Structure formats: structure tokens, C-alpha cells
Amino acid sequence: MSDNYKELIAFLGESKVLLDEPLNKYSSFHIGGPADIFFKARTCDELVKAVTSAWRLKIPVFVISGGTNLLVGDYGYRGLVVKNETNSIKLVGVVGGRKSKSSTKVHTAILGVETGVGINRLVRYTLDQGFSGLAAFLGQPGCVGGAVWNNAHNMKTGNFFGDNVFGAKILQPSGKVVDVSKSYFKFGYDQSIIQKTHDIVLSVLLKLNAGDKKSLWEEAQKALEYRRQTQPVGVFSSGCTFRNIKKSDAIRIATPSYTCSAGYLIESVGLKGYQIGDAHFSSSHANFILNKGNSKARDVLALINLAKKKVKEKYKLDLKEEIVLVGAF
User: Fold this and answer.
1) Are residues 93 and 79 part of one domain?
2) Dihedral through CA 124, CA 130, CA 132, CA 138, nearest 10?
3) 256 to each of 245, 251, 261, 265, how far by Cα in Å?
4) Which of 21, 231, 298, 304 is 20 to 30 A from 45, comparing alpha carbons?
5) What is the mean pLDDT of the chain?
6) Which backbone phi and psi does 12 adopt, to 5 degrees?
7) CB atoms within 10 A of CB 207
8) Last residue in a domain, options 170, 198, 227
């Protein structure tokens, strides 16, 4: 073991780190080799401490939370993997409306949410409180950190997670913790600026309007039911494999009704249900790759490369992965 590894382990605490920890346990794909060093951060201070220590010692570091939208290589990760288990949701501000004798009706709420919080837990909290803005995300896997990084979305309803972000606290590669506004993130489809800057989001402020609790739950249940009808459920998967294409490309290649669906393109080149090893494109939604139980990362990667090759040959179009490839393949 190298000296910098020994120093990092001593700094984090030998009893708090795991060595050669299999990462398949923390991935919705249930795929991935071991991390050299694995650490669970239960507070933002622990998260900052772990990441900045690795940076100082020039040890590669990767932060995971929900483990969705992630494909970890069969040979694992050479460095430190930090599991973000921060879990705080707080009401930090309200804007009221008319006052009655007994109360003030809340028009807008500001929530402070740590990035290890699961999306489903957050959505259910907001629904129970009668806050609108996140109902379309009921049933969506993952955690708040990933939702900000990738600007999580429900394309059926046109909702993006970034629409609700008011501000955030981030850890910059310089080691500084700073507060930023929504505009910092430059949110787009499957995009935020932190994919390039490599900032780590510690917590976010969400601005949510008040709504009717019964109507919000009905909206959320519709979103959940649609997800269940159109996407594979109860399986080992990492969600959509590829980003949908631009409308201009859909028009150029004349897809049916000018659909931008990457799933349509994969199906159109004959890969729906296609299998390599123990991994296959879903027969219900071709943009999902499923692990039947014993798939290797190399099997999934082979399917990804095959789809890109066939779509390129037929449509002169480059598919772009939505999932993130991590570690050694």
C-alpha cells in the first residue's frame, strides 16, 4: 500500500474506511469491481474532509450517492470512493400570503436539502407538505446530488429538477466551499456546468410554490403510473442509457412524428432485446440496458458501443451516453 493511501486512511480513521469494497453493492446496475478505499460520509463536513484530503494527497476520488446512471468498471476504482449519505431536509424560509386569525397561508417555500437525500423521499416530503414542483419525479431513482449533476427530468411532463433550484452550497476543486445561485449551473437537457467544473454539490436550496395536497398527489401518482407502464421496473438497470437526440436531428432523419427518442433509434436498428453475456436491451424500452443477474461491465459496454455503431451507420448520428462510466474496465 502506498504512503499516500496510508496517510488518507489514518486521516479518515481506520475503523471508518473499507478496503477493496465491491462497488456492485452501491450501483443500481449491481455491477462493478472494488474500490481501493471506500468511505461513507454522513455529514457535509465529513464529505468535504474526505474529498479535500484525497485531493491534497493526489488520490483519485469519486463521490456516489444513489448509484444510478452509473456503470462501474469490472476492475473497480483505483482511489477513494465516497458514499454520500447526508440526509437532511429543512424548511429554511417561507413567503406568506394573506393572514387569517390563526395562520398565514404559505405561497412559496425554500427547502434546504443535502445531496445524499433520495429523490423519492424528497418528493414524498414535498407532497405531504403541499409544495408543488416535484410531483413529476415520484418513482424516479437516485439522489439529489445526481439530479443536480444531470438536471434530472421527466420528459413526458417537461419537468426538470433544475427548474426548482434556487441556490446551492458547493465544494470547488480549489478546496473552497462557496454559495452559488441557480444561474451558476447553466442547466440544460441532461446537463449542468458541474459536469465540466467537477464541483461537488453539498446541499441545494429549492424554491417551491404551495399547492393543493390532494391534486399534487394525484399528479404524482399519474407520473408514477406512466413510468411503470413505459419503463422496466424491479430490474437491475441504470435508467436510460443514451440521451435523446436533438429535434433538428429528428427532423433531418425523419423519425416518426419527429420523435427524439434514443429508444426508437436503438429499436430501429434491431437491437431491442439484444443480449451480450447477461446484459440486454430491454424488450419494453430499448434505451434501458438490463442486468439479468450476473452481467459484467464489459457486456454493458459492448452493448453501448454496438448501439452507437449501428445508429451511426444508419443515421450518421452519434448517440451520447446518459450514464456515466467510472473506474477501470
Assistant:
1) no
2) 20
3) 13, 9, 10, 11
4) 21
5) 94
6) -80, -25
7) 18
8) 227
Helices (H), 202-292: 213-230, 247-253, 262-268
172 and 149 in a common domain? yes
Give the least confident one: 60-64, 219-223, 226-230, 298-302: 226-230
Run of H or E including 17: strand 17-22
Q: Mean per-residue pLDDT for 168-183? A: 97
From residue 134, give the alpha-carbon distance in Å to each of 101, 119, 125: 31, 9, 10
Last residue of a domain, one of 227, 253, 272: 227
Domain that holds residue 264: 233-326
The C-alpha cell of 37 is what? 478505499
Q: The whole model's pTM is what?
A: 0.90
Task: Give SS3 for 55.
Answer: helix
pLDDT for residue 105:
65
